[in-house]
Design brief:
Elements (H helix, E strand, L loop, with lengths): L1 H15 L13 H6 L2 H8 L3 E6 L4 H19 L2 E6 L2 H13 L9 E4 L1 H9 L3 E2 L7 H6 L5 H4 E2 L2 E2 L4 E8 L1 E5 L10 H10 L12 H14 L12 H18 L14 H10 L4 E4 L4 H7 L7 E4 L5 E11 L5 H11 L2 H7 L8 E2 L8 H9 L9 H6 L1 E2 L4 H16 L2
Parallel strand pairs: 1-2, 1-3, 11-13
Antiparallel strand pairs: 3-11, 4-11, 5-6, 7-11, 7-12, 8-9, 8-10
Helix pairs in contact: 3-14, 9-11, 10-11, 11-18
Length: about 400
């Protein structure tokens, strides 16, 4: 780490002396840059490089950034984009180390975060902000009053991150084997009992399995919105008992009699591909359509949501406290929140994900474009998804439920 820091410092000195180069980094600190007006920041960002650290595990997403975003960012802002694939936990840990070492200028300009990673970064002062009020596209196209914009897994965003996209939890099923999928947790339990061995879910703390537990909590809860506030163990304890009862009721009828569970979503999807189970699930409403297109899921696959709604999740972009090019970071984020970039992101050829913008705020032409987008044969309509969207609960509740599942279901 020390060797890398020395090399990086030497390189900065060398580059800072190359005044005739075609690329430059902003010399202003992030705090000073955020005080400038938009036109000044746009001018300052021209000719610079912006470093985007993000999860790189999906080729479609990577191609969206490299093949569609990067060329247009260069054309519109004369801004060069470099994508660095890295898991969020890794770059948050990197920021922690830089903060401890009092490193004033780092390597990351924009990071892709949400949930616990954002909470950690914000609480430990690892982020630059608030900045969303500076973004023209955020102000124009985002529903700034929406809970899923103002809270990230129950934690207030307060302008320290900008919404990049939204996903929603859905169930997928083979319509050749299931004529009428269940529309509630109670109906699901009945279906599982009537079709032993044909349903299961990933074992928490796998993200999908944990989401399924929260989905059951929503069905069993008297006041689900109470979980959006500060953690209260007395609140969750009583209602969690109903969750464990529901899961234990179906357990003997699960795949392998509930004696073992898939350890990941990919394992569950493999069981579905093999026909061992007739349902799968996931936090991506377009995933089934993508897998149909790839020839991995049967063409008869469809998706459904519970009548009372399913979990929705917004993921965000943030700027580290020591971003070397905060002006370029703002230009990139603002571009990614443009209607053109958000609409292209919905294309199955790249990502197929839902936009973070409010459709009501789009131009008539853009609204018509969104309506014409083919999100695949298994993807529910935008209207049905949005009308069944429920917010995520606080991260402390998520972790409490994951621990509770191990004690009250896995060991049952």
């Amino acid at each position: 780490m020390k060797k890398f820091t020395v090399i990086f410092f030497v390189m900065v000195l060398i580059l800072s002396g190359c005044s005739g180069g075609t690329e430059r980094k902003s010399k202003q600190s992030g705090e000073n840059s955020l005080k400038a007006d938009w036109k000044e920041m746009e001018a300052s960002a021209k000719g610079t490089t912006v470093n985007f650290f993000m999860w790189g595990g999906d080729e479609g997403i990577n191609r969206y950034i490299d093949e569609w975003v990067a060329p247009r960012l260069k054309e519109q802002y004369n801004l060069k984009l470099k994508r660095y694939p890295m898991d969020a936990v890794e770059f948050i840990n990197k920021l922690k180390a830089e903060k401890k070492a009092n490193k004033k200028s780092g390597e990351m300009d924009v990071i892709w975060v949400n949930g616990e990673n954002f909470k950690t970064a914000k609480q430990q002062n690892l982020l630059l902000g608030p900045f969303t009020s500076k973004l023209p596209n955020f102000q124009k196209y985002v529903d700034t009053e929406s809970d899923d914009i103002n809270y990230d897994f129950g934690f207030p965003t307060e302008g320290f991150e900008a919404p990049w996209g939204k996903v929603q939890f859905v169930f997928a099923y083979d319509s050749k084997k299931i004529a009428n999928p269940p529309k509630s947790a109670a109906e699901l339990i009945d279906w599982v009992k009537q079709n032993p061995g044909k349903f299961t879910y990933p074992a928490p703390p796998d993200f999908t399995g944990s989401s399924f537990i929260r989905q059951i909590l929503h069905e069993e809860s008297k006041d689900y919105n109470a979980y959006l506030s500060t953690f209260d163990e007395s609140l969750i304890k009583g209602e969690a008992a109903k969750v464990w009862n529901a899961l234990n009721e179906m357990q003997p009828y699960l795949w392998r009699q509930g004696k073992s569970y898939p350890q990941s979503l990919s394992q569950l999807e493999q069981l579905y591909k093999n026909g061992e189970v007739w349902m799968t699930m996931g936090y991506d409403e377009a995933n089934a359509s993508n897998l149909i297109k790839a020839g991995e899921f049967p063409a008869s696959t469809k998706t459904f949501v519970f009548d009372q709604g399913t979990l929705s999740n917004t993921h965000f972009l943030a700027i580290p406290y020591n971003a070397p090019n905060p002006e370029g970071a703002l230009m990139l984020i603002n571009f990614l929140l443009s209607p053109a970039a958000q609409i292209k992101k919905m294309d199955l050829a790249y990502w197929g994900e839902n936009m973070s913008l409010s459709v009501d705020r789009l131009s008539l032409k853009d609204k018509e474009t969104v309506e014409l987008i083919d999100r695949g044969p298994a993807t529910l309509s935008q209207e049905e998804l949005s009308s069944h969207r429920i917010p995520e609960i606080g991260a402390d509740y998520v972790q409490w439920l994951e621990r509770g599942w191990l004690e009250n279901v896995a060991k049952h």
